[in-house]
Amino acid sequence: MIEFNAVSKQYPTGQLALYNVNLKLNQGEMAFLTGHSGAGKSTLLKLIALLDEPSSGEVIVAGQNTKTIKQRKTPAFRRNIGMIFQDHHLLLDRSVFDNIALPLKIEGMRHQDIKRRVRAALDKVNLLSKEDQFPMMLSAGEKQRVGIARAVVNKPAIILADEPTGNLDPDLASDIMHTFKQFNEYGSTVLIASHDHELIKEMKKRIIVLRKVKTTNTKAGLKNGR
Ligand SMILES: Nc1ncnc2c1ncn2[C@@H]1O[C@H](COP(=O)(O)OP(=O)(O)OP(=O)(O)O)[C@@H](O)[C@H]1O
Known about the structure:
- With 226 residues, this protein is an alpha/beta fold.
- The chain has 2 domains: 136 residues, P-loop containing nucleotide triphosphate hydrolases (Rossmann fold, 3-Layer(aba) Sandwich), CATH 3.40.50.300; 66 residues, no CATH class.
- It has 7 helices and 10 strands.
- The two termini are 17 Å apart.
- It binds adenosine-5'-triphosphate (ATP).
- The site of adenosine-5'-triphosphate has 12 residues, from α1.
């Protein structure tokens, strides 16, 4: 489902964020991406979601080399991917329902279908009773769950999460990880970048360790800690 072949990424500043990364994540798999701060975890996720492109090597997602995807096809491609960030990026002046409905409205879906899909997503993250509330009225864990509902409302084949539990206490963090596990059980391929080693171990899924590229030793790359 996701394949990196000899992928390197150098930012225009000259910073080498990834060097010679090889990785394969099968359809329906769930894995954690870990490594020190600056190891390139966010960069790797961005390359999958077409938010940036590799400097060299191939990133293959759902059978397509991301370099060959034309700009006008990018929105359709991204609909296969649900992305969750640590700071959920919710619109504070919109209700929970409207935040989650946004990607479907952009797609031009009919109101009745939007309602059905938003409620199904809210149900999956256990927030059905909060659809009329505004983000300011929610706890940190609830806000994060709204972010997850918005990312999965399109029923994406791939779910990517960048430090989704970074601001949460251990119980809430565990809850969120189990929510991801459920989406994986429904069939989505899930890749989560996280520093939370204890929690990751508890989840008993594959762990991929990214090593920070050292400027003096560009052979550093990715070690697959399966
Ligand atoms: N837009 C950018 N321009 C220049 N350098 C960048 C950019 N984004 C990231 N970097 C650099 O690339 C390297 C990898 O960054 P990245 O954010 O991918 O790491 P990370 O493993 O996600 O780190 P963290 O755990 O701290 O979030 C870092 O040295 C970072 O400073």
